[in-house]
Structure formats: structure tokens, C-alpha cells
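Before relying on records like the one below, remember that each one covers exactly one chain. Contacts with other chains, cofactors or solvent are not represented anywhere in the record.
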Amino acid sequence: MANDKNKKEEEQNAIESLDTNLRSASEKIAENKKTIFWVLGGVAVVAAFVIGYLFIYKNPKTNKAFEDYNQVEISAMGNDSLAAVQYKKVADANKGNDAGKLAALSAAESFYNQKKYKEAIEYLDRFSSGDPVLEANAIILKGDCYVNLKKYDEAISCYGKAISKADKNPQIVPRVLLKEANIYDVQKKYQMALDCYQQIADEYPQFQPGSGVGIDAYIAREKARLGK
């Protein structure tokens, strides 16, 4: 009975840890929101010039699309339910152009915050960017959606793609490896979890999980589970 109780507590702790570590993708995208506009527009200069470029030289349809997007930013700030509806409208009306891609990403983030994970995935599939950081974070968010849907294999696939896209970015890769390890813990694939933690320790020694516990403690836990 005691062993069964310990196993249940261990599973619950792993799931809670997994849930905690899912939040960082959407938070990271939110932090980057002010830069997404510039990246998708392909202009890396001061804000005044960017706005002038977009609204003077872009075609009228694109101008209107960015105006609509900016209006949602203003009117729906802090209201995910309203934001999802309005960003979705802009994305649906502008499929394929930069404003539509940006609106699709923002709609996906709003859907995620409402726990509407299937809808979030649908709109994440419409997003693409030449910027590897934004692209990686969008893929991470898609992986997080799959985790919440308990589609762990799909989540792991997304996380692998995000790691590849991030190209050893020290702010992204260890965070994704931590997410992978949490999934493996839930699945009781402790050796695979250990491999993730060990990779973090070896390649990203400055990374801190944010739980107040160092990565060495995670490694020790997995080794104990494996009887090493």
C-alpha cells in the first residue's frame, strides 16, 4: 500500500511539474509580442521608419490588415476571449500575408490561455517566420498544446523541431529539454528523462530550472529511480 501511495504521489508531482513548465512558451511569446511585428515585416530599423514603411509602401490590403491587428491589440488587451475572436477574424481575412500570420499566432496564444488547445494548434499551423527564435517559440507552444491534450508523442516531436530551429540558443534549448524530461517522467521513461537533464548539465551549465532546485538534483532523482 505504501509503495502504491508513493507511486501515485510521484506521478502527481511529475504531472504538476509538467504543467508548471508548460507556461513558459506562451509567456515567452508574450514578451516578444512587441518585436514580432518588426520581424514579420522584415524591417530592422527604428519604430518610426518601420511604421512609415508598412503604411506608406505596403499595398493597401496589407496596410488595412496591420491596422486591424493593431486595433485588436488595443481593444482586447487582457481579454483572451475577445482577443481570440478578433485575432481569428484578422487571421482568416488575411491568410498568407504577414499581418495574417501575426494574427494567427496571437489568436493561438489567446486560445491556449483559454485552454482551447485544438483551436490553438489550428492557428499555430498558419504561422511561420524567418526569425528562428519566434519560430521556435511558436513550435514550443504547439507542443504544449499537445501535452495538454495528452498527445505526448506529438508534443515530443514538436519539441524536437523547436530544438533544431533554435540552433543551440541557450535561452530556448534547455527550457525545451526540461519539457521533454517532464513528459518522459510522466511516461516513466526515466532513462530518457535522465538523458535530457544530463544534456542540460553538460551543454547549458548556467541554466536554472526556476524551481529553486538545481539540475543536479533532477539528475540524482532520475538515477535513483533507475537504481544507479
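The longest helix spans residues 2-41.
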